[in-house]
Design goal:
The chain has 12 helices and 2 strands. Helix 10 runs antiparallel to helix 12. The protein is mainly alpha-helical and 289 residues long. The termini are far apart.
């Protein structure tokens, strides 16, 4: 008895015509935009190259990075505290934190920056006294305190606290309640449980949006130029107000922002990968198994 050997199957790849058409359209659009920008006589590439590494631009970059670092440090620390307060069983702490988040998320950051920049018009002096006494712990003219980058740091930090609080609160709520119960069964105090058990596990959820917050903060520092915050945007605005080369100097600022955001994006990728790896390693049964 003979058996017929089946002929080999001839695989025909699927044609993705739509992908090619979309790619061609995107390339054509990119070409049109690039051509329009490069052909503009007001772009002045030589001017961009001339100002890209000027001392005042580099000083603005340093101030921008400093503002970002301080605001994120204070904002994250305050956000963790506010998140814990919002999850507290104490109604006073819970409501106070909710009101803080409501106010600073509900008003534009630009309004907050201008408010702190002109705080001296509302409060001529900043005075801190011992409650129910006339003993002054701190008493200084407001305009003597709110100088340099202080108003910018205050506005950026307080605004970030409100957003960081919600991010951290979401991360804490994402951790299974059994983790807390297991920690308490082992005799761990609530504060120690939060530091050692809850927050480390919540970082898997917190890390991606907080990375986005750092990038958003870096770009938001440009808003402090309205109160002459000495940042990158303030630096280029000061110069183009004198030489009227608006487009080239805005391009200088854009190049620096893109470069800084690109570096932060790489750092964010590594941080997310690190915390994601830790989650996969413990996903078989959690910390207590």
């Amino acid at each position: 008895m003979t058996t017929d050997t089946p002929s080999p199957i001839k695989a025909v790849p699927v044609r993705h015509h739509g992908r090619w058409i979309a790619a061609v359209l995107v390339l054509l659009l990119a070409y049109q935009i690039g051509s329009a920008l490069l052909s503009s006589p007001n772009l002045e590439p030589h001017t961009i190259g001339e100002y890209l590494f000027k001392d005042f631009v580099l000083e603005g970059v340093r101030t921008t990075l400093l503002l970002t670092a301080i605001a994120m440090l204070l904002g994250t620390a305050g956000g963790v505290l506010l998140a814990v307060m919002r999850l507290s069983a104490n109604p006073v702490l819970r409501v106070s934190a909710a009101v803080f988040v409501w106010f600073f998320r509900g008003t534009p950051l630009l309004v907050q920056i201008v408010f702190f920049g002109f705080l001296g018009a509302l409060l001529p002096r900043l005075t801190v006294t011992v409650p129910f006494t006339d003993i002054a712990i701190f008493d200084q003219p407001t305009n003597a305190v709110m100088v340099g980058i202080v108003p910018a740091v205050l506005a950026l930090s307080l605004n970030e606290m409100a957003y960081a609080a919600e991010i951290v609160r979401g991360g804490i709520l994402a951790v299974d309640k059994g983790q807390t119960e297991a920690a308490h069964a082992l005799g761990m105090k609530p504060g120690l449980t939060m530091r050692r058990i809850i927050l480390p596990q919540a970082m898997r959820v917190i890390a991606p949006p907080m990375g986005n917050e750092v990038i958003t903060m870096l770009k938001s520092t440009a808003l402090v130029s309205v109160i002459a915050g000495r940042d990158l945007m303030t630096a280029v605005q000061t110069v183009y107000a004198q030489n009227y080369k608006v487009i080239p100097l805005l391009a200088v600022a854009a190049i620096w922002y893109l470069a800084l955001v690109s570096v932060l994006s790489v750092v964010q990728w590594f941080v997310e990968r690190r915390f994601g790896r830790g989650h996969r390693a413990t996903s078989g049964g959690g910390m207590f198994r």
